[in-house]
Amino acid sequence: MACRVACRGFRIARYLSHMRISPVVANMKESATLAVAAKAAAMKAAGKPVIGFGVGEPDFDTPTHIRDAAKKALDQGMTRYAPTPGDKTVRAAIAHKLHHENGIACTAEHVTLTTGAKHSIAMAMQALLQFGAGDEVILPTPAWVSYKPLIELYGGTCVEVGSTVDQGFLLDVSAIEKAISPRTRAIILNSPSNPCGVVQPRATMEALFHVLARHEHVAIVSDEIYEKLLYPEVSAGVVHMSPGADPRLAQRTITINGMSKAYAMTGWRVGYLAAPGSNGQFAKEVIKLQGQLTNSIPTFIMPAVVEALTNGHAGVQCMRQAFAARAQLTCRLLSDIPRLRTTPSNGAFYSFPCVKECMGLRTAAGRTLDSAQAFSEALLEESLVAVVPGEDFGACARTNIRVSFACAEPLIVEGLARLKLFVQGLR
């Protein structure tokens, strides 16, 4: 009997070893942010006092009134299937928010709820791009690590337009216009930015909108997940601008947002996509696609989304103020570290310092630093501080590291003190 079981196990393993994996998936890199988080978590589990600046996740609990709305929905038996894009009430709440807060003219029919904002971006790429057609997507970089893999997963070519810390990570509008070709299908925008923590100025966005208005074949995918995390305490007059509110762009703008960052609802996995163009035809096609992939988000979560959008403003403001203070603290401490160059963060909860001046030096343990990856690995192993290396954020970010300040101020102080000692010890 044991022999038969062993032989059967061998046959299964042999079969699996011959399964063909799609080259697109096989060549896809693991998310750098998730990889860092996993390694830091494993070290913490082993008893090491790691300070994690890797994960882009608020350290606050979801506000009580939002959790209570989900509990009530469960108690009322809201555990069955819902329409693929969500029920009419929650979609109407999102449309109301977009119309009154962002100036985007849309209705419930133009909105679908998704399993996180990443799911919305993936479906937008899948609906826009065609394999073998030479489709291109312009990506201003540094940019979130998942944009490029999602573009390539669905057959597109990622055209990077870079910016650096010396430019304040501002969009190079003229370079973006030069990158537009007849093959350009879309541009992805993200302001406030992950990983830079920068809000694009009004003048820059207006100049970009003017350029995009001249290129009617280009769709705009606007990831606005950090829109509520703006810090006038850092940059007076900072403002969020939605391209979907511009009448020249409204018909070809896909607005993506979610509940994770502003409402501390990361684990709830709630994103949404709004596309009012062509009488909602793009939204209809995405919803059709979604019906074949995931169907709706859990039904009992939908009342919690309505509650957050309707009554969650005070909680958002409280968290925003805490992040603003952390942004100022992080900038001050990073600016005091020799060999690092940084720019103030006026949105989101990231700083993206350049560590180029550390390249070629050796750590106290004798490791030569030849990349942001090597810098980050040595920092974690020798000083127990987790940051995300810049390579996966774009070619222009290969000598940067991402520091997330979505954690308590004492951890920021201690972690950046360790970073300073690490850098001072380089020879």
Plain-language structure description:
This protein has 427 residues and is α/β, with parallel strands linked by helices. The chain has two domains: 26-61 and 315-424, Aspartate Aminotransferase, domain 1 (Alpha-Beta Complex), CATH 3.90.1150.10; 80-311, Type I PLP-dependent aspartate aminotransferase-like (Major domain) (Aspartate Aminotransferase, domain 2). It has 14 helices and twelve strands. It has a seven-stranded mixed β-sheet, with helices on both faces. Strands 9-12-11 form a three-stranded antiparallel β-sheet. Strand 3 (136-141), helix 7 and strand 4 form a beta-alpha-beta unit. The chain starts with a helix and ends with a helix.
Task: For the structure shown, list the relevant keywords.
427 residues; alpha/beta; Aspartate Aminotransferase, domain 1; Aspartate Aminotransferase, domain 2; 7-stranded mixed beta sheet; 3-stranded antiparallel beta sheet; 14 helices; globular
Oligomer: single chain
Summarize model confidence as the mean pLDDT: 94
* CATH hierarchy: architecture of the largest domain: 3-Layer(aba) Sandwich
Portion of residues in beta strands equals 5-15%
Name of the top-level CATH class of the largest domain: Alpha Beta
What structural class is derived from the secondary structure elements?
A: alpha/beta
The rough form would be described as globular
Residue windows where pLDDT falls under 50 for at least 5 positions = none
What is the helix/strand order? HHHEHHEHEHEHEHEEEHHHEHEEEH
**What is the number of E strands?**
12
CATH topology of the largest domain: Aspartate Aminotransferase, domain 2
Helical proportion, percent range? 40-55%
Read across the widest sheet, the strand sequence of neighbours is 2-8-7-6-5-3-4
Number of H/I helices: 14
The rounded Rg comes to 22 Å
Overall tally of structural domains: 2
According to CATH, the homologous superfamily of the largest domain is: Type I PLP-dependent aspartate aminotransferase-like (Major domain)
CA(first)-CA(last) distance:
63 Å
The description of the largest β-sheet is: 7 strands, mixed
